[in-house]
Amino acid sequence: MLKKAQIPLVILLTLAMLLRVMGTAVAQEPESARPLHARRGMRGEITAISGSALTVAVRDREISVQTNDDTQFHIIGQDGAALADFQVGDAIAGRGQRQDDGAFLATLIVRLPDGEMALGRIAAIGDAFVTLNGRDGQPITLHVTGDTLVAMRGQTFAWGGDPAGQTMLREGMRIAAFGEWGSDDEMDAHTLISARAPRPPRREMVGEINSLDDSSFTMTTLGGDEVTVLTDENTRFRHSDVDAPTLADFVAGDRVVVVGQVTDAGVLARLVAYVPADRLNGRAAIGEITAINENNIEMTTRNGRAITLITNEETQFRVGANGAAALADFAPGDRIAVTGRATDVENNFIAARVAKRG
Asked: What CA–CA distance (Å, rounded) separates 330 from 140?
């Protein structure tokens, strides 16, 4: 039964990391591992508080947890938590270091929300419910109200507040829910803690710039799609004719390769790379190798087109940003970006450059 399942220590500590108070990541360890590790963590229930020290029941024994001026305290939904806000009976997760005397010196103590716990990835979001895919794909229905708290990125929002917690969540997010089980697959949830949002879909495109402004441009891909490309301070630019290029070094008519993440407003570029005209000859593609036959590479482009690349002594092969390579370094299944020129045979191209992508 879900409500009786033991939650691994690493997951509870990860919840604290998701609130951006954890610092470095905690290494994974199974539930059966020792409860206390140097420079790792612990979880349990406070049984006594004396001065700056806590006694915590951890499975089948009690341990001493020491705090000092450097210890951080966190309670979901409360700003500026301190040791005085904790009390006997609180369930906590902590990070710190075991001392020579066996005590645990805490760098962080997080009070876990009251109630039972459910874990899963969001499958659907409604006005008064969240559906999770739990363990082994088992569906879990979380019943929420306007007072249900949503904690993420170091902030806490009310489900019906301003901003509404509901709008903070996305399908695919991994969350922990705290509340009371009504049955094995339904919970009345008072707190939802979100794990890191799933990475937005990635897109790779080759095409021609139509127009630009200070931080974005439109382009027409080889497949004929018109796409808005957004840039920010994290966008990298590459231009064979410019050292340390910026978007200002690109003009309408330039052929470019764009790698980025799909958003509602367009593709947020992580890389914009200029493709020289003498290499391109009007042809470029990104896709996956399906076969290699002697000097020919069979590939399928991202839009499903099957093409043949003919390589010769002039073809340049690259692996990574700067690594020179050879045809022997490529294999079926590799994702590649290619430039070249068309031949008289349909869907056949003389490859000028073949680059393996990550």
From this structure: 44
Please tell me the distance from the alpha carbon of residue 210 to that of residue 208, in angstroms, as a whole number: 6
Assess contact for 213 and 263: CB atoms under 8 A. no
Over the stretch 175-210, which tens digit does the pLDDT of each residue have?
889 999 998 789 999 999 885 555 566 788 888 899
Same domain, 312 and 228: no
Q: Are residues 241 and 289 in the same domain?
A: no
Strand partners, 318: 324, 355
Name the domain count of the chain: 4
Q: Which domain holds residue 258?
A: 202-275
List CB contacts of 29: < 8 A, sequence separation 6 or more. Answer: 8, 9, 10, 37, 40
Instruction: Give SS3 for 201.
Output: coil
Q: Which helix (H) or strand (E) holds 13?
A: helix 9-18
How many C-beta atoms lie closer than 10 Å to residue 288's C-beta?
14
pLDDT tens column, 101-140? 888 999 888 888 888 888 888 999 999 999 999 877 889 9
Same domain? For 35 and 125 the reply is no
Cβ–Cβ contacts within 10 Å for residue 203, how many?
A: 19
CA separation for the pair 324, 308 (Å, rounded): 22
Q: What is the CATH number of the domain that holds 76?
A: 2.40.50.140
Residues 6+ apart with CB under 8 A from 137: none
Its sign, for the CA torsion 45, 48, 53, 59, is negative
| CA 111 and chain centroid, separation | 25
> Which residue(s) pair with 291 in the sheet?
298
pLDDT tens string 278-298: 444 545 677 899 999 989 999
Would you say the C-alpha torsion 311, 316, 320, 325 has a positive or negative sign? positive
Domain-ending residue, one of 275, 294, 314: 275
pTM: 0.45
H or E element at residue 36: none
Residue ending a domain, among 227, 260, 275, is: 275
The CA distance from 324 to 51, in Å, is 63
Task: Report DSSP letters for 300-337, one per residue.
Answer: EETTS-EEEEEP-TT-EEEETTTEEE-GGG--TT-EEE
